[in-house]
From TrEMBL:
<dbReference type="InterPro" id="IPR014719">
    <property type="entry name" value="Ribosomal_bL12_C/ClpS-like"/>
</dbReference>
<dbReference type="InterPro" id="IPR013823">
    <property type="entry name" value="Ribosomal_bL12_C"/>
</dbReference>
<feature type="domain" description="KAP NTPase">
    <location>
        <begin position="22"/>
        <end position="290"/>
    </location>
</feature>
<protein>
    <submittedName>
        <fullName>Ribosomal L7/L12-like protein</fullName>
    </submittedName>
</protein>
<feature type="domain" description="Large ribosomal subunit protein bL12 C-terminal">
    <location>
        <begin position="380"/>
        <end position="446"/>
    </location>
</feature>
<dbReference type="GO" id="GO:0006412">
    <property type="term" value="P:translation"/>
</dbReference>
<dbReference type="Pfam" id="PF00542">
    <property type="entry name" value="Ribosomal_L12"/>
</dbReference>
<dbReference type="Pfam" id="PF07693">
    <property type="entry name" value="KAP_NTPase"/>
</dbReference>
<dbReference type="GO" id="GO:0003735">
    <property type="term" value="F:structural constituent of ribosome"/>
</dbReference>
<dbReference type="InterPro" id="IPR052754">
    <property type="entry name" value="NTPase_KAP_P-loop"/>
</dbReference>
<dbReference type="InterPro" id="IPR011646">
    <property type="entry name" value="KAP_P-loop"/>
</dbReference>
<dbReference type="InterPro" id="IPR027417">
    <property type="entry name" value="P-loop_NTPase"/>
</dbReference>
Length: 447
């Protein structure tokens, strides 16, 4: 948003530019993909909004600059297909395989994938029924085995055609797999393991590992299977490192109009370094900023004060609701921690307190703006404020949610409240966890 232009509100699409100083990471991954043995699966792990897609785009750009063919696939767009793997292969055929030959092989693969289930036969009542059923069942099993062999052969032919018998390296980028329904996730992962692991092929998965593991565990009704399952598929795991504070501040400045550059550090201090969260916040801030310039036309307007209030609205909704009703709640000193733990030492809150101490009505215009065009969080943390008498039950709830060991859960529960027990949850998931903690006589809040 150069020259104060406010037309550049940011959407959630990945940035085509490296605004988070991840050039070195992209180059290292691109080099790895070009020299590794094949087949190979690389997993890029990161939570919501941390820049997985942007990093994958940077890697793809470098590979294409080195003349390495790449295929980009978004499985969630095809999760309601009978088999999303066919859509992946269609994408590949459109780009790197002779269309006529590719279509023939795709037809064979789609046909084989459609018919692989033996339906249950009715109960038999006589021995002759049993023998007839047994013969039919064995014939069906033979047909299924034969079809699976043909399926494997068709996959192999198609992948050999795409990679010139393994001589050409082909890199697949599979993004947002964790957004799919569990059934679609498993179909894609199992295809990677059973059919697509052909010489010359490298697969780069961009996923939220925790969300993916939850889907796997849900499918198999086993909380301990996901890690082993993924380890058998992903040979090179890479967890996206946190963005440095300095890089994030520069990123925020690139989003802000010229007149707001000096509040970039405040935004990062208040919100952390999640790029997508920051983009959404900045969109609301810029809109509030433009409204404020009109609302405070004849009065002094403090952009830092507006930013502080919006950070509080985003990070401390409980306190925000109280101060929106009564600004004097900010003058309660240490009692503020009873409204929202940790509030008294929050620099954004202290900025608001100072202003209300000067003039109890100083925030009125800012609060009005924030209620009209404020920020609405899409990720929530859960904090235990009191463990209660049934400590063991609270430990059990935390272990079931986070999948941590018994010792870690005990240490967490024995620490001084407020205790952060989950972060980055949806509103529904956060509310469910709070209810589970309260059901065992603990006290918890959503932040």
């Amino acid at each position: 948003m150069a020259n104060g232009d406010i037309s550049g509100y940011r959407n959630d699409e990945p940035s085509p530019n490296d605004l988070l100083d991840r050039e070195k990471i992209a180059r290292a991954l691109a080099n790895t993909v070009q020299v590794c043995e094949t087949p190979l699966v690389v997993g890029i792990y990161g939570s919501w909004g941390t820049g997985k897609t942007t990093l994958m785009e940077l890697v793809r750009k470098k590979l294409e600059g080195d003349k390495v063919p790449t295929i980009w696939f978004d499985p969630w767009r095809h999760q309601f297909d009978d088999n999303p793997v066919v859509a992946l292969l269609h994408t590949m055929v459109d780009k790197v395989v002779d269309r006529k030959r590719g279509k023939e092989l795709l037809t064979a693969i789609a046909s084989a994938l459609t018919d692989s289930v033996i339906t249950a036969a009715p109960l038999f009542h006589e021995l002759s029924d049993f023998h007839a059923y047994k013969a039919e069942y064995e014939e069906s099993l033979f047909e299924v085995r034969e079809r699976r062999v043909q399926l494997r052969e068709s996959f192999a032919k198609l992948m050999r055609a795409a990679t010139n018998d393994g001589e050409v390296r082909l890199v697949f980028f599979i993004d947002d797999l964790d957004r799919c329904l569990p059934k679609s996730i498993l179909k894609t992962l199992e295809a990677l393991k059973l059919f697509l692991n052909m010489p010359g092929c490298v697969y780069v998965l961009g996923v939220d590992r925790e969300a993916l593991e939850n889907s796997i565990n849900t499918t198999y009704s086993d909380r301990n299977i996901a890690e082993q399952y993924l380890d058998k598929i992903v040979q090179v795991p890479f967890t996206l490192p946190p963005v440095s504070t300095g890089s994030t501040i520069e990123f925020v400045r690139s989003l802000l109009p010229d007149g707001l550059h000096d509040i970039a550090e405040d935004i990062v201090a208040g919100l952390g370094t999640n790029p997508r969260r920051i983009k959404r916040f900045v969109n609301s801030l810029v809109l509030n900023h433009e409204l404020a310039k009109q609302t405070f036309a004849d009065q002094a307007y403090n952009a830092k004060l507006l930013a502080a209030l919006l950070v509080v609205q985003y990070q401390r909704p409980k306190l925000y609701r109280r101060l929106a009703e009564d600004r004097l709640v900010l003058l309660e000193g240490a009692e503020l921690d009873k409204v929202d733990a940790g509030t008294a030492n929050d620099p954004m809150v202290r900025r608001l307190v100072t202003e209300v101490e000067r003039d109890p009505s100083a925030l009125d215009g800012y609060v009005f703006l924030s209620t009209v065009a404020g920020v609405r969080p899409v990720e929530f943390d859960v904090v235990v404020t009191k463990v209660g008498e049934y400590r063991i039950n609270v430990i059990k709830v935390i272990r079931e949610h986070s999948d941590i060991g018994l010792k870690e859960a005990r240490d967490l529960v024995d620490s001084q409240p407020p205790i952060l027990v989950a972060s980055g949850l949806s509103r529904a998931a956060a509310e469910e966890l709070v209810e589970q903690i309260r059901a065992v006589d603990g006290q918890a809040e959503i932040r």
